[in-house]
Write a structure and sequence with these properties.
By secondary structure, the protein is an alpha/beta fold. The protein contains 20 helices and 16 strands. Helices cover 40% and strands 18% of the residues. The strands form two sheets. Strands 1, 2, 3, 4, 5, 6, 7 and 8 form an eight-stranded mixed beta sheet that branches. Strands 9, 10, 11, 12, 13, 14, 15 and 16 form an eight-stranded mixed beta sheet that branches. The structure holds hexanoyl-coenzyme A.
Length: 513
């Protein structure tokens, strides 16, 4: 009996060792030579030490004479800062991490378990896309992953980390997840690579220029964050998850920071320049208000006229949305609309209250924006704020003009608390534009149009460009001293908690995507 048991254990051990070899020592050495870790090494770095539990490590594609157990993907669960997460890591040493039906089904198994257990799912991607020799079965596999990505959306956080190529289908699954973390100079994502581009359009472009981390961080908006190397990318997952609940029925974890909730900041009383066209750094405003060092911006390289990110107020996670006056004066364009609306929807899905800092001078004018569909894209911001049922607080720091003000989580769209600093200017449009329209004839007739314009602008400013009309009408709930913004927000969040909001039942709305 003892002999039989020993033989069984030896067989198990041999199979395990075979699975651990992946695509073999040569290919592992090649992976290391490129400065890349193997799938298992990455999981070790990502998770709390010793917590990874592998599943389905012996699965192969049946009948293909395949001898690589695990089929090019390592799947399982483990802990990250003591919380369970489900993970998969593609093994580039096995058929270039390409996706077969078996490979896909292993990923699907993890996603199913993540949803039924209410835990985040993290994918570490390094893949040549659909396994070419599998044909339609590989495509079927991808479809099964995409279906799960869509169905899990809004139930559990889904995070993709790209650590190598993500070609073809390999880029769609990340696109369906909530955050894509790319790795500088290591990961590339594209639907069709440089060779296809050359044969179809004749254009010659490198992989890096076409789909490298910086291209997707600054040009396409696909990358939410960029790690400088693999370790950095994996550390970003840990940081990001620290702000997120494990699922849509939990509240985000509270992490006391020791920052005084009553801290007031005199600097905020002087941060808005006297001249309305002089910019100021909205990051400084945010950093002075939230718990020290807690602001974690996402998508900072794309549409920098809008700022989105997570922070803590008295230890509790909040989502921050803001204009950035330092870039394009903070106007809203197509990309800013997409960036803001997606972030608002994410925060709402995962019970993260929204704090919106408004300095919104307008939508970016011009045929490029109009023909690109700024109307359709801008409408998404309205849609996202209106549907959001988390506590919503908006603070107008300076400009709140016209539609660009209304869309930014205004009272009319359902802000729970609408605040302003004394520097706020709430009007249909800026004084210059308004005077040019309303006083066109007087200005044309004037002996000294410059002097008259200055006078009319000053008059308009006095009448409309202040927060007090809005306060008189009850549109603003309070005009506050900027220095006291932090304690005001913390008290407001305590008072608001989770407002009860019931929309009439429907299958779903039709967001203007
Ligand atoms: C099978 C693949 C593969 C694939 C790579 N390999 N991609 N095997 N199917 N899709 C294998 C290679 O044959 C090689 O095997 C090993 O993986 C490593 O690949 P290399 O080319 O040596 O590595 P590298 O130079 O780093 O280039 C990586 C790469 C390149 C950029 C990913 O391999 C590549 O362009 N692959 C094809 C990408 C692609 O077009 N995929 C199909 C997309 S279509 P050996 O034995 O030599 O180690 C798609 C449709 C899905 O995905 C649609 C879903 C709806």
């Amino acid at each position: 009996m003892e002999k039989k048991n020993t033989a069984q254990l030896e067989e198990l051990q041999a199979l395990r060792e075979r699975a651990l070899q992946g695509g073999g020592a040569d290919r592992i050495a090649k992976q290391h030579a490129k400065g890349k870790l193997t799938a298992r090494e990455r999981l070790e770095k990502l998770l709390d030490p010793g917590t990874f539990q592998e599943l389905q490590s012996f699965m192969i594609t049946p009948g293909e004479g395949q001898v690589t157990p695990g089929d090019g993907v390592v799947t399982g669960y483990g802990e990250l800062d003591g919380r369970t997460v489900y993970v998969y890591a593609q093994d580039f040493t096995v058929y270039g991490g390409s996706v077969s039906l078996t490979h896909a089904r292993k990923i699907c198994r993890i996603m199913d378990l993540a949803v039924s257990s209410g835990c985040p799912v993290i994918g570490l991607l390094d893949s040549g896309g659909a396994r070419i020799q599998e044909g339609i079965r590989a495509l079927q596999g991808y479809g099964e992953i995409f279906r799960r990505n869509a169905l899990a959306s809004g139930i559990i956080p889904q995070i993709s980390v790209t650590l190598g190529p993500c070609a073809g289908g390999a880029s769609y699954s990340p696109a369906l997840t909530d955050f894509v973390i790319m790795t500088n100079k290591t990961s590339v994502m594209f639907i069709t690579g440089p060779n296809v581009v050359k044969s179809v359009t004749g254009e010659i472009i490198t992989q890096e220029a076409l789909g490298g981390a910086m291209a997707h961080f600054t040009k396409s908006g696909v990358a939410s964050l960029v790690g400088q190397n693999e370790e950095d990318s994996l550390a970003l997952v840990r940081k990001l998850l620290s702000y997120l609940p494990s699922n849509n029925v939990e509240t985000p974890p509270c992490a006391p920071t020791g920052d005084d909730p009553n801290r007031s900041e005199e600097r905020l009383n002087t941060i808005i320049p006297e001249k309305p066209n002089i910019p100021y750094e909205m990051h400084e405003v945010i950093e002075l208000i939230v718990d020290q060092g807690s602001f974690f911006e996402v998508q900072s390289g794309w549409a920098p006229n809008a700022i989105v990110g997570f922070a803590r107020l008295d230890g509790n996670a909040v989502g921050i949305v803001a204009q950035q006056p330092m870039y394009l004066a903070g106007v809203i364009d197509i990309n800013a609309s997409d960036k803001i609306s997606r972030f608002v929807r994410f925060c709402d899905a995962f019970n993260i209250p929204l704090i919106t800092f408004v300095d919104s001078p307008g939508f970016l004018p011009g045929p490029l924006q109009e023909h690109g569909g700024i109307i359709r894209h801008g409408a998404k911001i309205i849609y996202a704020y209106v549907e959001a049922s988390v506590p919503k607080i908006s603070i107008v720091t300076r400009k709140g003009y016209g539609g660009a003000y209304i869309v930014m989580g205004s009272k009319s769209l359902g802000a729970d608390l609408h605040l302003a600093w004394p520097s706020a200017e709430l009007a249909v449009m800026g004084p210059q534009g308004a005077v040019n329209i309303l006083k066109r004839r007087e200005l044309a007739r004037a002996k000294d149009p410059q002097a008259l314009r200055a006078e009319l602008v000053a008059d308009y400013r006095k009448k409309f460009s202040n927060p007090y009309r809005a306060a008189e009408y009850g549109i603003l709930d309070a005009v506050i001293e900027p220095a006291k913004t932090r304690p005001t927000l913390i008290a407001a969040l305590r008072a608001l908690r989770e407002p009860v909001r019931q929309l009439p039942p429907k299958k779903h709305g039709v967001m203007p995507v």
